[in-house]
Write a structure and sequence with these properties.
Blueprint (H helix, E strand, L loop, with lengths): L2 H10 L3 E4 L6 E6 L2 E7 L5 E5 L2 H10 L3 E3 L8 E5 L6 H19 L3 H13 L11
Antiparallel strand pairs: 1-2, 2-3, 3-4, 4-6, 5-6
Length: 133
């Protein structure tokens, strides 16, 4: 996966906005004003995504390409290497997991959350990364 594919995939999710809130180098992807992914254009070899805390620890233990996110809450955010051995399907699943986690936990009011989840379902999106096998 490269930065263009990452960007395109994030923007393909329902109700996603691309922003530059920190500087002109860091692309931040938000759903309903809540951040779920980010990548730095000058260092596009990894991206940060939100993750359930228990799942975040499991992923860090299982994959050397996944570490705690720099400059973000290390309990809830992972850095995921794009240049490692992880396939694009896995990387996209982690992006979706982050997206769904933010929608379910941070989007308010409830009607907005339900509308976004309905749009995702209509688009055929599922959080298939919710549980590790």
């Amino acid at each position: 996966m490269d930065i263009a594919t990452f960007r395109e995939y994030c923007l393909s999710l329902p109700e996603v906005q691309e922003t530059l809130p920190f500087d002109d180098d860091t692309l931040v992807y938000k759903v309903s004003g809540r951040m779920f992914a980010m990548i730095t254009m000058s260092h596009p070899d990894h991206f940060a995504v939100k993750c359930h805390p228990d799942r975040a620890l499991l992923l860090r233990d299982r994959y050397q390409e996944i570490t705690s996110a720099y400059h973000l809450n290390k309990r809830h955010w992972n850095d995921v290497s794009i240049v490692g051995e992880l396939p694009d399907s896995f990387l996209k699943a982690e992006i979706r997991h982050s997206y769904f986690a933010v929608v379910r936990q941070n989007v308010t009011p409830r009607q907005s959350r339900e509308a976004i989840l309905a749009m995702a379902l209509d688009a055929g999106l599922v959080d298939d990364a919710e549980w590790l096998e």
